[in-house]
Design a protein that fits this description.
Helices cover about 50% and strands about 15% of the residues. It has helices at about 30-45, 65-70, 75-95, 110-115, 145-150, 155-160, 170-175, 185-200, 205-215, 220-235, 240-254; strands at about 5-10, 15-20, 50-55, 60, 100-105, 105-110, 120-125, 130, 180. Helix 3 packs antiparallel against helix 10 and helix 5 (about 145-150) crosses helix 6 (about 155-160). It is globular. The two termini are about 25 Å apart.
Length: about 250
């Protein structure tokens, strides 16, 4: 696997860091590892709050791995791959602790899903967002419920339909995706550390109960997101998607 997921627990704060050399894109194996890490941190008595972050400066997460997408040849394989995003979102949703996302760079597709699923997201003022799935014939079906829950149907539709255009970090803050944005990494890290430290010193029981209230109405997501993964698993086999991804990869190589 080209990539890694690391967990560090210090002072009640579980910091989960992921990395992939291709702009922090997420192959299926990395998605499953990330979901397991979030679940483990949620069940670890030493962790009172979870911080989700990625390495590097320019990209928080580029979403699905195009190399893996283009290799999918049947619907069951496609369903399994897109279920990886469902697993990560549901792991965040069901973790009995708050998850803070540190978004230091651009977020695309599944990366927007991760930023949306987090309970509290802080970002750089350069952290633009884009749901590019429709442009390659798939559609943001798996991450859609998390994004729509966070920013509302109208803003979600704007991102999903205008799939080739970026929206700024300021737009994302205005819509409620980002709680705040910062001009420097130092300011971002200070804000993340300050909030995580406050939460680590708070009542675990009260935070658990508040998280359950905030996620009320999503109890069916275990089934819903798998159903959405089936849709994406079918669409990724289309001739349109195969050609679109091939053209994108060719353009990147040039």
């Amino acid at each position: 696997m080209n990539g890694k997921v690391e967990t560090n627990i210090d002072g009640g704060i579980a910091t989960i860091t992921f990395f992939h050399p291709q702009s922090n894109s997420l192959p299926g194996e990395l998605l499953r590892t990330l979901a397991s890490a979030i679940e483990a941190a949620g069940n670890n008595a030493e962790a009172r709050v979870i911080v989700l972050k990625s390495e590097g400066e320019k990209s928080f997460c580029a979403g699905a791995s195009f190399d893996e997408l283009i290799s999918i040849k049947d619907m069951p394989t496609g369903k399994v791959f897109f279920s990886g995003f469902a697993m990560v979102i549901n792991a965040i949703r069901k973790a009995p602790k708050f998850v803070i996302a540190r978004v230091q760079g651009k977020a695309v597709g599944g990366g927007v899903g991760l930023a949306s699923a987090a309970d509290y997201t802080l970002a750089m003022d350069t952290a633009s967002v884009k749901l590019s799935e429709l442009a390659v014939g798939i559609g943001p079906f798996v991450v859609g419920p998390a994004v729509e829950r966070k920013i509302g149907t109208s803003a979600f539709a704007q991102l999903a339909i205008n799939a080739s255009e970026w929206e700024s970090a300021a737009w994302a803050k205005e819509k409620g995706l980002y709680a705040n944005i910062y001009a420097t990494v130092e300011e971002l890290d200070k804000a993340v550390d300050t909030l995580a430290g406050k939460l680590a010193a708070s009542s675990l029981e009260a935070m658990h109960d508040l998280k359950r209230v905030l996620w009320k109405g999503t109890e069916h997501w275990d089934q819903l997101l798998i159903e959405r993964a089936e849709i994406s698993g079918r669409l990724v086999l289309s001739e349109f998607t195969i050609n679109a991804i091939s053209q994108f990869k060719a353009a990147v190589k040039r």
